[in-house]
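Because discrete structure vocabularies remain unfamiliar, we turn briefly to a single example record, giving the amino acid sequence and backbone structure tokens:
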Amino acid sequence: MSKILVPLPYTGSIELWSHIIKSKTICIEAHDNYQKQTQRNRLYIHGANGKLMLSIPVKHKGEIGHQKYRNVEIDNSSNWKLNHLKSIQIAYRSSPYFEFYEEIFFEIFSSNYSYLFDFNKTIFNKILELLDITTNISFSKVYQPSPLFDDLRKLCEIKKNQNKFELNYNQVFIQKNGFINNLSVIDLLFNVGPTCKSILKKIKL
């Protein structure tokens, strides 16, 4: 793809990152309204009992669907960051490359963020760095209902995440639960490490 418009997710799915890594220009949506039950505040990992969702609690102000994503505040009254870190550690501490990336994510989760957009932006930029993606990246200036380039914003919606591609790599609990496709990109990072980029490029979407 030449240019794509993508959402800013909580880490983002393997499918989304496969699109990103194959594109020449990436525009991140920065003026959309916040929607519940999307990858804006959710990610999925492979835990001991199967697919596990981790959700960032947010403060809802006004009618849902009319609050700007950029203005959504994280509800830090709960210890969600520690819970997410523990879940990730339990799921991946025996994966081949967890020790290479553990400190990076620990540092992010140890920092204080008031807004969901800012927290996700930090993680997004760090994953770009880990995958050595040097593509031209920008943020949208206004909301465009029908952009003139490839619109991938729907990939943030859970129900649109249909796993319509073939992929296979070793996962920590694959013997117990079988292979689980299209999880958070961190599942791929922890399990395959430096080959993550080449795998993302080879996925046929």
The mean pLDDT is 93. The CA atoms of residues 57 and 78 lie 8 Å apart.
